Amino acid sequence: MSNFPVHQKTKATIDKIITSPSQAYLFYGQKGLGKLRVAYDVAYKILKIDASKLANGAAHAGLVLIGPEEGKKNIAISQVRDLSNKIWRTGSSTDSKRVIIINGIDKTLAPAANALLKNLEDCPRGATFILIAESSEKVIPTIRSRVQLVYFREPNSSLVEEYLVDKYNIKSGLAAELVMMAHGVPSRAEGLMDEVLLDETKQLNSLVKDFIKSNIPHRFVIAKIINEQKMGKDFLQELTYAIRQQSTILMQGDKEVDISLKNLDKVMHASTCVNNNINTRLILEDLALSLK
After folding, report:
1. Dmax of the chain from CA atoms?
2. Under CATH, what is the fold of the domain 8-151?
3. What is this structure's pTM?
């Protein structure tokens, strides 16, 4: 496997898949943990592809990738309907190995998902499906029941720091800061190599801490700032990380844990509302009133 940092338990599962692939898997976990990167790496090893020979957009006959088309949020049913032709015509025999990567299966509407189900039920020998999602719960149950679940959790921070130091030739202190600001998510830490984005993230992080600790009037001030700077989605993402971390470090069974989990539900609901273009300031002000 590539040196991209992956949690030890996840890596052990991936190694088994490479050695003895089954028909279908669901890679799921939060954004930024390298699910698509790992899926490609698994595909290359199953198909015995030298990735260095696939530069400049070159394709391989045994590898099929499906994801939302540019400018679209969901996988189109036409893309899934084309899949049967692609996987059946690939190779010279029905036993030829193929890997089909479907990125964003949790954002696929019911008609396309049902069409995909038919491909899972009727596919050639030697075909391996790797479905990718941020949430397994948003994948329709009939698909979930036909795949092996592979959960991507955050790797140890030291692994991410070592990866950044080796790949980008930066000092360990900067790597540690990037990992902390990225909440341990490797791809987010890579993105924070951009100084402008790092400064923005630091500002958001400071506002999040103030929002959690402040009284309601000051929270309204922060809501106004976030709305004016059009940072609602990023602010709520940072707030989600902060409250999730807070609930993790508290002891199980503690009353504070229950409060923290309820807060997390409220923030995630607020994120959904903002993503659906509901007035950001109103959502943040409602959160300012309800957050404990």
Report:
1. 69
2. Rossmann fold (3.40.50)
3. 0.82
